[in-house]
Specification:
Blueprint lengths: L6 E5 L5 E6 L4 E4 L4 E4 L3 E6 L9 H14 L6 E6 L5 E6 L4 E7 L6 E4 L4 E5 L3 E6 L3 H6 L5 E6 L3 E7 L2 E6 L4 E5 L3 E5 L3 E6 L3 H6 L5 E6 L2 E6 L3 H11 L14 H7 L4
Antiparallel strand pairs: 1-2, 2-7, 3-6, 3-10, 4-7, 5-6, 8-13, 9-12, 9-16, 10-13, 11-12, 14-19, 15-18, 16-19, 17-18
Length: about 260
């Protein structure tokens, strides 16, 4: 079964959303809670599985739901179907500041491997599964553990990641080293491994962690400038002090009182 063919538009800059146009009887699958708005003719249904042919039957759907639990996703997925007689639209919002990445899987070799929370939505017929790491170092130190997510099929899928997204095309044998938290996804032919930073000073004082993700082409790689874990660390660190920081103001606490923040 070929995936449903959908049209789409991505709106916004830092807080993007993707608007998807569905012909009658076309369906798009999404994680629960991602829907932003939809036309009246769109029917929403919560289901097991991802709606792909690979998960036919009750057992297949249960296995698909179990796979999503392993990757940290919710147990169910939501199907949005146009039950009207004309084109209708449904929109899905990004969960935090960043960019939405459209993936035409047919043009990308039929498979993209991505970090566990990157998937946003996809045309019905795209399989959303798990990718087990076959290398111990990659599993222990890769930032994503032994399990990553894979998107397979011939339709459109959409990933989301933090900050600005860079797409790199690697030639055969071309290497690229990336911070493990900044790696969003890569096509199936990219060789992915973990390498030690090396050097005592680099290890103890470099501030870049102990390991890099090593990627070797051919294939495409997507890299994010702001991993959600890094953003969360900064927020937690900033929330340790009461109120706002003085930011070097010569008035200090007096400035807060004058602004009404120190009461």
């Amino acid at each position: 079964m070929r995936a449903h063919e959908i049209d789409y538009w991505i709106h916004g800059e830092e807080m993007q959303y993707v608007e998807i146009e569905l012909d009658p009887n076309e369906t798009v699958m999404a994680e629960p809670g991602g829907m932003m708005m939809m036309d009246e003719e769109i029917n929403m249904q919560t289901i097991f599985g991802d709606g792909s042919q690979q998960e036919g039957g009750l057992l297949g759907k249960l296995m698909g739901a179990g796979k999503r639990l392993l990757t940290g996703e919710k147990l169910f997925m939501t199907a949005f179907t146009n039950i009207g007689s004309f084109k209708s639209r449904v929109s899905f919002a990004s969960p935090y500041p960043g960019k939405i990445i459209p993936l035409d899987l047919e043009q990308l070799g039929g498979k993209v491997i991505c970090q566990k929370d990157a998937f946003l939505c996809a045309a019905k017929g795209v399989s959303v599964g798990i990718e087990f790491s076959k290398r111990m170092g990659r599993g222990f130190f890769g930032g994503e553990g032994f399990i990553m997510q894979k998107l397979e099929g011939d339709g459109m899928a959409f990933m989301h990641a933090g900050g600005h997204i860079t797409e790199r095309t690697l030639g055969p044998g071309e290497h690229l080293r990336v911070d493990t938290g900044c790696l969003v996804g890569f096509t199936k032919d990219v060789d992915y491994d973990i390498v030690f930073v090396g050097g005592v000073k680099n290890t103890l004082f470099g501030g870049e962690g102990l390991f890099f993700a090593s990627l070797m082409g051919p294939g495409k790689v997507w890299i994010q400038s702001l991993p959600i874990s890094r953003l969360a660390d900064r927020i937690i660190s900033a929330s340790g002090s009461y109120g706002r920081k003085d930011e070097g103001s010569i008035l200090g606490g007096l400035g807060n009182l004058l602004d009404g923040d120190g009461i």
